[in-house]
Design a protein that fits this description.
heterodimer, A: alpha+beta, Glutaredoxin, 4-stranded mixed β-sheet, two-stranded antiparallel ribbon, 5 helices, B: Alpha-Beta Plaits, 6 domains, 11 helices, elongated
């Protein structure tokens, strides 16, 4: 073997070794990053801003509202404030008058307020509706299926959905009147 | 960078300790395996060049050789061990007891454990095992494992495959087992070879130089073992993805049908009955313990039906088709379609319905004039009674309490402590009497009511807490553990034994032997092999050395 050839084969060997090592390191680092990323967002089923709001259909139980069922996809083209609440929840109760005070104005502007009740019984919901004279649609999530679908933790929890059906804002906890109005304006169709 | 040519003519890669061909120690490299001051040769990896110890060039090579160091690997393991120990000092966040005064980790650790607890929380040790740095540490161990194994396995494999029977004298004489014999006949050689073959040694011959080898297979044990470990690590990564692992908790009331979470509404579950059984206090075996400890549960059981649902859209009324019906007991889960349901908790005695009677306030016998039943899960708002009474359920508080303003309210959604405001319209009357009723409460707001409502009867139900899960990563853990075990067995129960015999033309003979473990067994082999021949038994040079010292 000539010197030139020997050098050549050595270079080739070295190059192959470099490729081999780079490949193995790339795979190992890739697996590490994957593990850490997939672990850091352990509950990646939670819906965040920018996600499409999953569709659902529920019985509407507010006798002051003419709708019989609510299907989210039917409201496309309108901004939707999707609120999860229960009669036993004091902060939920506190924001109900705000929602009612803004509802007539904003429903004219094609923003719908949908307040999903997580109560067990229709009776308590309808007594509550009478207490505050609510007129927006109140779907009744009796089995908790939609609560699970939206991965709602403690209530109140509110999703603001734009006319394209995308979630633009998630608010966990109670809303003030100012904040509520601000958020409603953001999801108003242009 | 230069390759090293041995006097036997073989060209060795840089960093070689013992010539790959003849085994002669290569001058200038003996420090690598610490051979300089020793009489005996260190036979680790057969003296091949571990690439990591030879050169660093590009940064890839630098990273590679960093991870290739066993020392680094051991330190990583020690760090991970210490970190794991720290994680056990105080409970992890998910194990903060449910009855703790404040379960918020920001408060809990300081309140319970003082300043050390506060530091523990602030450094993030309350979530140690899922913290990014702990995961990085484990990943680094994995990387070290892969690179260490590769860097040692490849050269060792090559060295053992290309063994030459002809070895340098200094290689032979510096083996632990070594002997010299002045004269050996051809017949003796034949006997030795025959015996070696009989003892299942594989013999390679070259110009009178003999290499007898057996159990090379054993040398791969550690690498097989590492493959098992790597599979276990990969399984742990898979387990962190929702595709492989899911764990949810559902509360189901007796008689209710609930959706099973994380199934996109595909499955529903009905709780037919929850059963809590206790050990019989009249049983002699338990009597003593029960008088000491009180009632002891013997069975927690939920009888369930699982349905597969067909519904066009979440929330719409589903069509349910039963697919499994079973009793779930503790540690006896219900399995269906790859999911598992475990009995994990319960709540006793929620109210399902209450029956009330109306009687005259003045009637001391409380004779019922009319009675009605309120279904607490789906109460009606009005009751028209046969005797002409009309009762309106004006307010219903499933879990009654007085709120901060002193107003009646409900604390939860569940009928644990129901209370009611009834409007009672006596026959032919348009004006109502108001009655407030709860458990242990019966209040007449005006004090002028002619009729009084009393609780006549009630029914209760229990609630089952079920863990709903799947773990599809378990088979991978199993495979990894099995391969791990195979590697251990391979390395433990087989030994790599080698015997070198060199016969010169004048009939003199050198014999040397090496094994990775069980030197006694190897000596036994040699004893049998040289029986009835002139060959001298090998001496254990290490033992000699120790004796001298």
């Amino acid at each position: 073997m000539s010197l030139e050839k020997a050098k050549q084969s050595k270079r080739k060997k070295k190059r192959n070794r470099l490729i081999f090592r780079s490949a193995i390191l790339a795979v190992l680092i890739g697996a590490t990053i994957f593990a850490i990323v997939s672990n850091s967002k352990a509950d990646n089923s939670i819906y965040r801003e920018g996600d499409l709001a999953p569709d659902f259909q529920l019985q509407q139980v507010n006798h002051n509202n003419e709708l019989e069922t609510i299907r989210l996809s039917d409201l496309e083209g309108k901004g939707v404030m999707l609120n999860f609440w229960g009669t036993w929840c004091k902060p939920c109760e506190a924001e109900m008058p705000y929602m009612q005070s803004l509802y007539p104005e904003y429903s004219e502007k094609d923003v719908e307020i949908v307040a999903v009740s997580l109560d067990n019984t229709e009776l308590v919901i309808s007594r509550f509706i009478d207490k505050y004279d609510l007129t927006f649609p109140i779907p009744h999530d009796k089995t908790g299926e939609i609560r699970d679908l939206y991965k709602v933790g403690p209530i109140p929890s509110t999703f603001f959905i734009n006319p394209e059906g995308e979630i633009t804002e998630v608010v966990n906890g109670a809303l003030t009147l100012e904040r509520l109005e601000e958020s409603l304006q953001k999801i108003m169709p242009e | 960078m230069k390759e090293i040519k041995c006097e036997c003519g073989h060209v060795n890669p840089l960093g070689t300790v013992l010539c790959e061909s003849c085994g002669k120690p290569i001058e200038g490299n003996q420090h690598i395996d610490g051979n300089d001051d020793e009489k005996l040769l260190n036979m680790r990896y057969d003296g091949t060049a571990r690439r990591s110890k030879t050169y660093n060039k590009s940064w890839i090579d630098r990273v590679w050789s960093f991870f290739s160091s066993v020392k680094v690997g051991i330190w990583l393991i020690v760090l991970a061990l210490v970190a794991s120990m720290i994680g056990t000092i105080f409970p992890q966040e998910m194990y903060i007891p449910a009855n703790a005064p404040n379960r918020d980790p920001a408060v809990f650790y300081e309140e319970q454990y003082g300043i050390p607890g506060l530091i523990y929380f602030q450094l993030g040790f309350h979530n140690l095992y899922s913290s990014w740095w702990f995961m990085v540490l484990i990943a680094l161990i994995g990387i070290s494992l892969v690179i260490c194994s590769l860097d040692r396995f490849v050269p060792l494999f090559k060295a053992l495959r290309n063994q030459k029977p002809k070895k340098h004298k200094s290689f032979l004489s510096r083996q632990r087992l070594f002997s010299e014999t002045d004269f050996v006949t051809d017949h003796d050689m034949e006997t030795v070879k025959k015996q070696l073959r009989k003892r299942r040694y594989k013999i390679t011959e070259e110009n009178g130089h003999i290499l007898a080898e057996k159990g090379r297979f054993s040398r791969w044990g550690p690498y097989v073992n590492h493959i098992g470990l790597i599979i276990i690590l990969l399984a742990a990564i898979l387990r962190s993805t929702p595709l492989f692992y899911m764990n949810e908790y559902v509360w189901v009331r007796e008689g209710d049908i609930e959706v099973l979470p994380e199934t996109n509404g595909e499955y529903y579950i009905e709780n037919k009955d929850f059963i809590l059984e206790t050990h019989d206090e009249n049983d002699e075996r338990f009597r003593e313990a029960i008088t000491q400890e009180g009632v002891v549960a013997s069975n927690f059981q939920t009888d369930v039906i699982v349905y597969k649902a067909n519904r066009p859209i979440p929330g719409a009324e589903p069509e349910l088709e039963p697919i499994a019906e079973d009793s779930i007991r503790m540690n006896q889960p219900l399995e269906f379609d790859g999911y598992e349901l475990y009995q994990s908790g319960y709540q006793l005695n929620e109210f399902s319905n209450m029956t009330f009677k109306i009687h005259e306030t003045t009637d001391s016998d409380e004779e019922a004039l009319a009675s009605f039943t309120v279904d607490l899960r789906n109460p009606e708002s009005e009751f028209e009674l046969e005797s002409g009474f009309r009762v309106v359920l004006d307010q219903y508080y499933p879990d009654y309490y007085l709120d901060d303003d002193g107003e009646p309210a409900s604390e939860t959604n569940f009928p644990r402590n129901p209370a009611f405001v009834f409007l009672v319209y006596p026959p032919n009357s348009e004006s109502a009497e108001v009655s407030f009723l709860g458990i242990g409460r019966n209040i007449d707001a005006t004090g002028e009511n002619e009729y009084k409502i009393g609780i006549q009867d009630f029914e209760m139900h229990d609630v089952s807490g079920l863990t709903f899960k799947y773990d599809r990563s378990l088979p991978f853990f199993g495979i990894g553990a099995a391969i791990f075990m195979i590697g251990v067995i391979q390395g433990m129960y087989w030994q790599h034994r080698r015997l070198w015999i060199q016969r010169k033309k004048d009939g003199s003979l050198l014999m040397a032997a090496h094994t990775n473990k069980n030197w006694f067994g190897l000596k036994k082999d040699i004893e049998i092999v040289i029986e009835n021949t002139n060959v001298n038994m090998v001496t254990d040079q290490q033992e000699l050395e120790e004796k001298v010292e």
